[in-house]
Amino acid sequence: IMVQSATRMMSGNRIATHRLKTQKVTGASNDFARALLQYNTAASRHITTAEAAPEIRDGLGKMDKALRNYEGNDRPQLMALQDEVKARVDMGIHEPNEAGKVMKDVLSLSFLARLFSPMHSIINSLQPAMVTAPILGGRFGNVRATRALADAYGTIGLGEAALAGAINTARATRQFANAGLLGMDDVVGNIRKKIAGDKNMTAMFDRLIELGAIDVDAGMEVNASVADGRGAWGRGLAATDRIARQMPQAVEAVNRAVSAIASYRLARESGMNHDKATQFALDTVKNTQGDYSASNAARFFNNPVLRPAMQFRKYAQMMTYLLADATHRAFKDASPEERAVARKQLLNFVAVQIAMAGALSVPGLELVKVAFLVAAALGFGDGWDDNEEKLRKLVDHYAGKELGQMITSGVFTRLGGFGVDVSQRMSLSDLWLFGEPRKNDADGQMAYLFKLLAGSSGTFIIGALDGFRDVGNGDFEKGLGKMLPIKFASDFAKGVGQYRQGRANLLEVGVNTLGARSARQAEESRKVADTMRRKDAKDAERRKLAKAFYDAKTSGEKVKAAARNREFNMTLREGEWRLRLPTNAGV
Fold first, then answer.
1. Nearest CA among 520, 584, 522 for reference residue 558
2. SS3 335
């Protein structure tokens, strides 16, 4: 058990740092006694969970089964007691670092507002192709890795697993008012049955389940909402949350199972014995699919102040670690063979990103964006967005519009007639920073920093308040699009609003409801953003020129200011407002 607990805590890309404070990434304090005490404290919690959790969950299942058919007058009180017991288990033993009730509700609303969408599950289902394949391909060859993943999908029965997620969603929707546990299909259990004929494969699979690497909740940052006897609000939120989780959980189980099976098979084919192949499969799943549980998060993710800002950033941390580790191995402190593997992995990541999300989504580009962001804040240059648009236009000019969009926004997703834009959703160049200040003045920079710190939950609340104002002003579709804490409903409302304004057709409304944009809508949005940035820049320049003219103390200074104004007016397009300075002001 100690070995299992230690592996569970120390494996993967992070350490259980809330209980085990780390120095660098390899261990605890140099103080042996302190390190031993902290390690034992952390290990004891994992041991408790490993030993007690199955019996506790079994008891909760029996409690639910007994209450399901109970019709006594005290049933409401017993249901409230059941909710309280579940809450104490889920927020205590299971996840000691779980957020408090109010914060958890805010994070749950943010989850529904951002990820309760079919497109979230569609994009998440590509995780093995986008992350596992480049890692395995760098070590075993891309053809072998691709074939191994394809065989793994065939082994587990991809269609059946996806159908189980859809059935669970429908079942949770039909039994919305039921606050207890529902009889859902066990996606992980069904996958395990598919490999039951291979004893070694089954042993590997069971080991990864035991260590938490294969778990439907391992990819969920916030545990499922618990009604906890809080009346209609708590029950409604918990039921909606339960519906929203069914398909993502099924996708998560498939992703992890496929990555584990493919990794294990490739490792055995390369000559590893069962134990080493199992460890390799565990490392691959942990590194490519992550462990988003609170007990395995870096300490700042569990900080009460930073928790809202850090929501949905655990994927960013996982990918940052993965890419940084490959970069380090590619150029330093590794054998020649390992350096070659790491370089292939990095090239694979770049190739996959260009294929799916375009050249402007490749990893490492975020560092360039930071440089432009800092330069603009210091008064040098126009920021990244302006230069990105110039780069897009340059590529379109030399490669042609259709090929240019494929290069910058995704080869496969923009191939042929009606393309779907997922470049922002799948980008590895926007892991930590999104956008930039609309204006590079103090107010614009403060607004940008506030959005970063407020995180997804904070910006959702601000957007909902803005939506109330839109509804009050009669713009119902726009207001509902901001207010609804269910993403696919919000996207549908926005799509309908654009359709009524003539900015979207019915097919595009359907694409919007799924959670994506058509290629045409994406390009139109970029044109609008480019126009707004140009307008803001020209307005700022007009103010600067007018101030220079009126602040001029001599006739010569006014002549120079007026000349600069005439040069500025010559750069304006037709229809743009030209600054008219007085003709009788000593010029």
1. 584
2. coil
Which DSSP category does 131 fall into? I
Closest C-alpha to 18, from 318, 302, 382:
302
HSE-up (13 A, CA, CB side) for residue 283: 10
User: Do residues 14 and 291 touch, judged by C-beta distance below 8 A?
Assistant: yes
Burial 104-119 (b: 16+ CB within 10 A, else e): bbbbbbbbbbbbbbeb
3-state secondary structure of 27: strand
Q: Could you count the other beta carbons within 10 Å of the beta carbon of residue 233? A: 10
Task: State residue 301 phi and psi, 5-degree precision.
Answer: -70, -25
436: left (phi over 0), alpha (psi -120 to 50) or beta: beta
Please tell me whether the overall predicted TM-score, pTM, comes out greater than 0.70 for this model. Answer: yes
Predicted confidence (pLDDT) per residue in 130-142, tens digit: 999 999 999 999 9
Q: What are phi and psi of 241, to 5 degrees?
A: -60, -40
Tokens 């909710």 correspond to 83
8 A C-beta contact, residue 572 and residue 535: no
Alpha carbons 223 and 252: distance in angstroms, whole number: 14
Residue 443, number of CB atoms within 10 A of its CB: 10
- The number of beta carbons lying within 10 Å of the beta carbon of residue 425 is 17
CA 569 to chain centre: 44
Where is average pLDDT lowest: 36-40, 135-139, 329-333, 420-424? Answer: 36-40
Q: Which of 126, 122, 130 is nearest to 351 (CA)?
A: 130
Residue 427 CA: distances (Å) to CA of 409, 499, 528: 10, 28, 21
- List the one residue out of 136, 142, 150, 153 whose CA is nearest residue 322: 136
> CA–CA distance from 26 to each of 12, 36, 213, 233, 283 (Å)?
12, 15, 20, 44, 15
Q: Are 408 and 388 in contact (CB under 8 A)?
A: no
Cα–Cα distances in Å, from 91 out to 184, 215, 253, 430?
22, 18, 23, 32
Tens-place pLDDT, residues 16-41 = 444 444 443 344 445 556 566 666 66
What is residue 129's DSSP assignment?
I
Sign of the torsion angle spanned by Cα atoms 468, 470, 473, 476: negative
